[in-house]
Specification:
- The protein is of the alpha/beta class and about 250 residues long.
- The chain has one domain: Rossmann fold.
- Helices cover about 35% and strands about 25% of the residues.
- It is built from 8 helices and 10 strands.
- It has a 6-stranded mixed β-sheet with strand order 6-7-8-3-9-10, with helices on both faces. Strands 2-1-4-5 form a 4-stranded antiparallel β-sheet, covered by helices on one side.
- It is globular.
- The protein starts with a strand and ends with a helix.
């Protein structure tokens, strides 16, 4: 069963007397356990698309379905619950609560959902180990590096075992070495936990970790590249950069 399905998505914005077409009919599917990267130049519609896929915004027309449930059929309350329980979000800026420890920040979605953290402690411990923060679980955000804070944010996004993880430029605020650590972690969450993941990025090195790269330009998908035939990151980076050059990204 397809986890996520985008069907003929259009998104228009009114800017004074002008109408901006951010998306012009986008269709694609994401299968269980897949790792997909979305690339495109500024203004191509990639962040708009991610917001629609995460239920943070509504399409002008078209449909998004998650595990068979159409977003347009969900009342606001149910859409909020879907985002809380079935969609994990990771952003460029970590959005951690400064008064909470790393472990408490990871537990936060459980508390917001009205559940007792004790029942999820095994999951929390598993994720703290996965992101390599066993020795830092009691530290607050201002005691952590940027990369460590992003690892906390990823563990927090995964704690509810969401149907899909959406990451918007997760390495954009990090240096190259730390960004590599974060992409390795997202790849591991896919391989070891079976986590379905979509990453928006402008960085070909980050996109090379994905199984599939979707290239957007002017609100439309221009090309999709699968990577079953290319196993090494350098080979994938070369292909991605070649497509970017062709598309003048």
């Amino acid at each position: 069963m397809t986890v996520l399905n985008a069907i003929d998505l259009h998104k228009h914005y009114q800017l004074g007397e002008y109408q901006i077409e951010a998306l012009k009919g986008v269709d694609f599917k994401v299968e269980p356990g897949a790792f997909v990267a979305i690339m495109g130049p500024s203004g191509s519609g990639k962040s708009t698309l991610l917001h629609l896929l995460g239920g943070l915004d509504t399409a002008t027309s078209g449909e998004v379905t998650l595990t068979g449930q159409a977003f347009s059929e969900l009342p606001d309350k149910d859409m909020t619950l879907t985002r809380r329980r079935n969609i994990g979000f990771v952003f460029q800026f970590f959005n951690l609560l400064p008064t909470l420890t790393a472990e408490e920040n990871i537990q936060l979605p459980i508390l917001i959902d009205g559940k007792k953290p004790d029942a999820y402690q095994e999951r929390v411990d598993q994720l703290i180990s996965l992101v390599g923060l066993n020795e830092r679980r009691g530290h607050k955000p201002d005691q952590l590096s940027g990369g460590e804070q992003q690892r906390v944010a990823i563990a927090r996004a995964l704690v509810t075992q969401p149907a899909i993880l959406l990451a918007d430029e997760p390495t954009g605020n990090l240096d190259t070495k730390t960004g590599t650590v974060i992409m390795d972690l997202l790849r591991r969450s896919c391989d070891e936990l079976g986590q379905t993941t979509i990453v928006v990025t402008h960085d070909p090195r980050a996109a090379a970790y994905a199984d599939q790269v979707v290239f957007l330009r002017d609100g439309k998908i221009q090309e999709t590249r699968q990577f079953e035939d290319l196993q090494t990151l350098p080979d994938r980076i070369r292909v991605i950069m070649g497509i970017m050059e062709k598309m003048e990204i």
